[in-house]
Amino acid sequence: MKKNAEAIKLITASISFNQDGAYWVAFTTHHPELRSLEFVRLILHFYAKILYIFSPPNVLPSLMLKTFVDKNLATGINKNSDVLRTANVSDVAKLSPYEPHNANKRIVVTFYFLDIFRRHIATEIPPGIYEQDIVYSVLVLLQAIIPRLDDFDIGILNQSLQNMKSAYDSGKSFSEMTNLTVIPTEAFHSIVGLDGMTGSYLTAKRMIEERNNSQGSEIQKRETLEKRRAEEANERKDLEERMRQRRNARKQREH
To answer: For 94-113, what is each residue's pLDDT tens digit?
Structure first.
C-alpha cells in the first residue's frame, strides 16, 4: 500500500500457531475511539485477501475456505458459535486462550483506514507456512473477533458475509484484484450504508479531523466527546430501525 497522509493504522492482529494446530490471536488497537464494527470489516477484508492469494491454478485452498465460511453462514454466526467445529476442522485446528507452546509460526494482519468508505489490509505471511494453516487462520480470526462484537455487530457480520457469498456465487471472481477490495467494501456498505455515517464512520471521519485539530482545552475535549457519543447513539438507533424496516419489508415480499 502506498502510504499517504490519510492512511491510519486501526488494528493489528497477530495469529500465532504451532505444528499441533493450536492457534492464538493477539489484537493491538491503534486508536482510542476505535469502534467494534472495524473488527467486522477486518475479517471481511482478510477473508477476501486469502481467497485472492490462492488464485488459479492453485484455487483449491480458496474453494475449501469458502466452503468452511459457507457452512458457518448456513447455521448463522452468533455469540456462542464454534466456527472451527462448524467447519468440521476442530480436530486439526483450535483457538487457544494463550500463546501455544512452540508457536514458531506467525501471520500478521494490519488494517488501515484510508477514508470514510475505504479500508486497506496488509498481510505478512512468511514463507514455509502450509496452505491449510493460512486457510485456518481466517476461521481462527473470525472466532477471535466474536467476543468483541455485540448482537448488532454480529448481525452486520452475518449479512456482510452473506453479501460476499452472493457476490462470489453470482460469478464475481475472488482472483481479480479489483474484487479484493470492492467485494468486502460493498458487502459491508450495502448493509450499513453511508447515509447514516454511524459508529465506525463517525469515528473514522474524525480521525483525520483530530489529527489536524488537536488543540483545545481538556474541558472542551470532554464536551466534544460526550456530544459525539450522543450523536453516535442516536444514529445507531436510526440504523437499527432502518434495518428492522428492511427485514419486515423482505418478510412481506416473501409472503
So the answer is: 999 988 888 889 999 999 99
More confident residue, 210 or 22: 22
Please give the pLDDT value at position 191.
84
Q: What is the pTM of this model?
A: 0.77
CA–CA–CA angle 48, 52, 53 (5° rounding): 120
CA distance 14 to 109: 6
Look at 113 and 192; give whichever has higher pLDDT.
113
Identity of the amino acid at 231: E
User: At residue 82, what are phi and psi to the nearest 5 degrees?
Assistant: -110, 90
Tell me whether residue 167 is exposed, middle or buried, using C-beta atoms within 10 angstroms of its C-beta: 0 to 12, 13 to 18, 19 or more. Answer: buried
Q: How far apart are CA 215 and CA 201, in angstroms?
A: 22
Q: What is the pLDDT of residues 22-70, one digit of tens each?
A: 999 999 999 888 999 999 999 999 999 999 999 888 899 999 999 999 9
CA distance 161 to 54: 19
Q: What is the dihedral of CA 86, 91, 97, 102, to 10 degrees?
A: -150
